[in-house]
Write a structure and sequence with these properties.
The protein has 497 residues and is α+β, with helices and mostly antiparallel strands. The chain starts with a helix and ends with a strand. The protein folds into four domains: 88 residues, Trypsin-like serine proteases (Thrombin, subunit H), CATH 2.40.10; 101 residues, Trypsin-like serine proteases (Thrombin, subunit H, Beta Barrel); 102 residues, Pdz3 Domain (Roll); 96 residues, PDZ domain (Pdz3 Domain), CATH 2.30.42.10.
């Protein structure tokens, strides 16, 4: 697939170049640009000023300021024989075709495994930031400074949810810390510099621009993904190094690359790190407030289906049973519009504000329900390991449900046992979804249970067909669906053909 994509991109590039060349030939050869006529033009005596060359930022001076604060991080951990055997089996082509080879006693002995990354000082006494995935599971950590001196380091705190770790260099100093900037103020197109230890080539400097903001890659817990994308070259070993602006302020921690593309690097925003640093330094971990809701950004279909005046807010898909939000009176289908009177424009706003509050704190949520505004007071719990989740939404003709591309059946005890449905879930089970149908495009799957249609509960196939029959062609059908695989419900908006 990769070679095919490369070939396609190369072909597209060739077409673009050919089109440009053809365009130049056409304008020069078909009279689109008129020929000059010296007999009709009066000579000009005005001096023509030469165009001023564009000036680039002083990257050399910027590098001189930033490089002394960047460290190369080397980790060592002990790998057991079982882990070695499993890794070997996964990688050895011979075993792929002919089965696993035997492992002798020597091969079963624990061995050392090394990893490499980057980091940067944030205090003169040796505190440094890096990625959690750089130091996670490490039995020992050593760092190399810009002057090639080396020292041991220890982990002060880690947060896997954001891939951020705080370490402390144990010897030397005072060190030169980097200033932490404001990643929220970062603009797409702004110059940035990445410094780190790519491919074990320590203190390498690359420059580029901010390509995009707010990227979600599916690498971390989805709720907290908010990557900065840059075309500054980032490679293996850059992880944990700083991404700085032209003022030398850190605006991100380089964290990930897209190996299928060129110069597609991603960094965790520094504001994410600044929000959790006090907890990492004090307790070594991050404790976050928890609402117990599953939310999504409002799209045009949601806006139409719920008769909303705008797309601002966070749409509640489902709630944790007996969770804080459920106890506070929040319901599925509500739109959370504010937290303590601070507007919520999208799910990111709600997640960031709630997770920045401690468990036990009471928050006042602005709620929009059935076109009416209200408030709900919720006492936050401690996040149990899965924060508010953003959910992804993702034709048998002749019946209303068939027009959507689904076959449905009544729930019986046998199906309940097979799907392991909770006692409080009642509805109609989807037995088949037709490929490329409206239901398929919306993300419905066989085994899902439809519990309501346009907010009217359905418990039989006849009830479901009756409610769908009421929907006019071209209008949205709002299905509330329980997914047994994840144990929660969410809304699916499907336009009636």
């Amino acid at each position: 697939m990769r070679s095919a994509q490369t070939k396609r991109f190369a072909t597209l590039g060739a077409v673009a170049v050919s089109a440009a060349a053809l365009g130049m030939v056409l304008t020069g050869g078909l009279g689109v640009t008129p020929h000059g006529d010296a007999t009709r033009l009066a000579p000009s005596t005005a001096a023509v000023s030469a165009p001023q060359p564009a000036t680039l930022p002083d990257f050399a001076t910027l590098a001189e300021r930033v490089v002394p604060s960047v460290i190369s991080v080397t980790t060592t951990d002990i790998v057991t024989g079982n882990e070695l055997r499993e890794n070997h089996r996964n990688m050895d082509p011979f075993e792929f075709f002919f089965g696993p080879r035997g492992f002798g006693p020597d091969q079963m002995m624990p061995r050392k495994r090394q990893g490499a990354g980057s980091g940067f000082f944030i205090s003169a006494d040796g505190l440094a930031l890096t990625n959690n995935h750089v130091v996670e599971g490490a039995d020992s950590i050593s760092v190399q400074l810009a002057d090639n001196s080396q020292s041991k380091a220890k982990v002060v705190g880690r947060d896997p949810a954001t891939d951020i770790a705080l370490i402390k260099v144990e010897r030397g100093g005072p060190f030169t810390p980097l200033a932490l900037g404001d990643s929220d103020a970062l603009r797409v197109g702004e110059w940035v510099m990445a410094v780190g230890n790519p491919l074990n080539m320590d203190h390498t400097v690359t420059v580029g621009v901010v390509s995009a903001k707010g990227r979600s890659l599916g690498l971390l817990e989805r709720s907290f993904e908010n990557f900065i994308q840059t075309d500054a070259a980032i490679n293996l070993g850059n992880s944990g190094g700083p991404l700085v602006n032209l003022r030398g302020e850190v605006i991100g921690l380089n964290s990930a690359i897209n190996a299928a593309g060129q110069n597609l690097g991603f960094a965790v925003p520094i504001n994410t790190a600044k929000a959790i640093l006090p907890q990492l330094e004090k307790s070594g971990k991050v404790v976050r407030g928890y609402l117990g809701v599953y939310i999504k950004n409002i799209d045009d279909k949601d806006k139409e289906a719920f008769n909303l005046s705008s797309r601002e807010g966070a749409l509640v898909q489902d709630l944790e049973k007996d969770g804080p939000a459920a106890k506070g009176g929040v319901k599925a289908g509500d739109v959370i519009t504010s937290v303590n009177d601070t507007p919520v424009k999208e799910t990111r706003d709600l997640i960031d504000r709630v997770s920045a509050m401690p468990p036990g704190e009471k928050v006042r949520l602005g709620i929009l329900r059935d076109g009416k505004t209200s408030t709900a007071t919720v006492t936050l719990a401690e996040r149990p390991g899965a924060e508010e989740q953003t959910t992804e939404q993702g034709r048998t003709e002749g019946t209303p449900a068939g027009k959507l591309g689904i076959k449905v059946e009544d729930l019986d005890q046998r199906t309940r046992r097979q799907l392991e449905l909770p006692d409080d879930v009642d509805g109609v089970v989807i037995s088949e979804v037709e490929d490329l149908s409206p239901a398929d495009e919306a993300g419905l799957n066989a085994g899902y249970v439809i519990t309501s249609v346009n907010e009217r509960p359905v418990t039989t196939v006849d009830e479901l067909q009756r409610e769908i029959r009421k929907v006019e062609a071209g209008s949205l059908v709002k299905l509330y669906v329980f997914n047994p695989r994840v144990g929660r419900s969410s809304f699916f908006m499907i336009r009636m053909p």
